[in-house]
Amino acid sequence: MLRQVAISCLLVSLALPAVARTRPHYGGILRVEIEGDPWTQHGGLARRLIFDGLTRIDADENGQPALAVRWQSEDSDHRWQFWLRPGVHFNDGSPLTSPAVVASLTASCAANCPWTAIRSVGSSIVLTSDSPMPNLPELLAGDDYLIAGTDTGGPAEMIGTGPFQPAGFTNGVLTLSANESCWQGRPFVDAVEIHVHKSTSDQWLDLSVGRADLVEVPAEQLRQAQKQRLTVVTSQPVTLLALGVSNSGVLGNPNLRAAIAMAVDRSALYNVIFQKQGELTASLFPAALTGYSFLFPTDRDVNKAHELRGGLTPPLLTLATEGGEAMQLAAQRIALNLREVGFNVPMGGTGGSQHADLALLRFTLSSSQPRAALESFLRGLGVTAPVLEDTPAGLYRVEREFLDTHTLIPLLYLPRSYAIGGRVRDLRLSADGEPLLADISLEDAQ
Q1: Of the residues 119, 151, 183, which one is the last residue of a structural domain?
Q2: Is the distance from CB of 191 to CB of 440 less than 8 angstroms?
Q3: Residue at 426 is within a domain
Q4: CA of 429: how far to CAs of 19, 73, 113, 212, in Å?
Q5: Coil, helix or strand at residue 243
Q6: What percent of the chain has pLDDT over 90?
């Protein structure tokens, strides 16, 4: 199936099948290096090591039990009841209870919840809504709804039920120790050390001299990693690069936003900056997930951009981006594209996208289930209406209606890749390209 292919992992190194057959060992410290923040809402390595969701998504894109063992919907999906797994404890020793789950879910999504009301009923929670919630089990598997515990009445961001628990943060190193009483079973390694804010060059150097076991490989450097004969594990395209466009001020004019969409040269970004990794897209999702992304054309149309601009000369527009060198180069290329069709955009990007007219952004695919992924994506962008249809035609109509506003312009879908050292065994990636560190074992562990 196309969707199954979309969430499968490509093993770039030929050595991996042989080493994966080695019997796993318990023990040892896994040393991981990353450029960003391990607590990022989507894609942060530490979050899913510490927290679990009520549900999870399996390879067939269905919601499966996690902290909830079963669920039931009533009243045409307006009411859902989830029964909690018995005997589960947070890493501080406190039991997983329905009031704790209600408190966590209420805090995590605030006013942007898919439900209207939530309450605890014995060892279950009940969620109701004025609108139907047909994909609630799949939505609850996402990062937005991971369950965190509380202490003394206040939120405790690091109290979870997952395979690891925080053990300290010193000198840029977050240490997580194995949760011996995890309901899923103890992970193989004793601890994970996550070294944060490390440049890619420093990560690769540390990997080469044995100071790191797992490091990042940005999409634009995947070919270089292969040339250096690094052992690399790569996902299918799961990270969307998109241009956010304000709909206020001068860009409140929809024709100007449409002109910007026509002016961007995706091919230059794909071929030159990101070294032909991933895929061109004008859709919110990769081709293999929905099968209809080809209906959103990706070609640049300079003449149409000029026509839509209608002779208007907008004032100076700010273009913001965050991230490494590739993101800065991409922002500069987009600024050049826009200047060529009459927009006044500085070539140097700025940090911080909150008040910018334009912002180059990254999004991680939140689910391998298309309807849940679309609803989660739109909710993150402030569109709260539920996605009711589960057919390609229905999903296409919802996506088309949103993209026709030109407030978000999809550009590329990129893979996530990691290079590993020789002692790492059995690394797999999740549906969104995150390394499953709880499943890793170390060859030299005793």
Answers
A1: 151
A2: no
A3: yes
A4: 16, 31, 28, 18
A5: strand
A6: 72
Phi, psi of 176 (to 5 degrees): -120, 130
Q: Could you tell me if 62 and 195 lie in one domain? A: no
Q: Return the pLDDT at 354.
A: 66
Say how many residues make up the chain: 446
Within a domain: residue 157? no
> Domain count of the chain?
3
Identify the CATH number of the domain in which residue 135 sits.
3.90.76.10
Tell me the C-alpha distance between 293 and 288, whole Å: 9
Same domain (yes/no): 265, 359: yes
Angle in degrees, CA 282, 286, 289, rounded to 5: 135
User: Taking Cα atoms as reference points, which of 332, 348, 339 lies closest to residue 313?
Assistant: 339
Note down the domain range covering 35. Answer: 2-49+162-236+416-442
Q: Are residues 296 and 365 in the same domain?
A: yes
- Is 181 in the same domain as 118? no
User: Which two tokens mark 338?
Assistant: 């826009």
On whether both 375 and 297 belong to a single domain, the answer is yes
Do 31 and 170 share a structural domain? yes
One domain, residues 182 and 78:
no
Domain shared by 70 and 45, yes or no: no
pTM for the structure as a whole: 0.87
For 381-426, the pLDDT digits (tens) are 888 888 888 899 999 999 999 999 999 999 999 999 999 999 999 9
CA neighbours within 13 Å on the CB side: how many for 275? 12
Helices (H), 253-369: 254-263, 266-268, 287-290, 302-309, 325-340
Give Dmax over CA atoms of the chain in angstroms. 71
Q: 283 to each of 3, 72, 150, 396, 406, how far by Cα in Å? A: 16, 33, 39, 9, 12
- Is the C-alpha dihedral spanning 33, 39, 42, 48 positive or negative? positive
Q: Distance between CA 417 and CA 225 in Å, rounded?
A: 10
CATH at 334: 3.10.105.10
Q: Which of 364, 379, 381, 370 is nearest to 430 (CA)?
A: 364
Q: How far apart are CA 7 and CA 430, in angstroms?
A: 8
Please state, in angstroms and rounded to a whole number, the distance separating the CA atoms of residues 31 and 19: 19
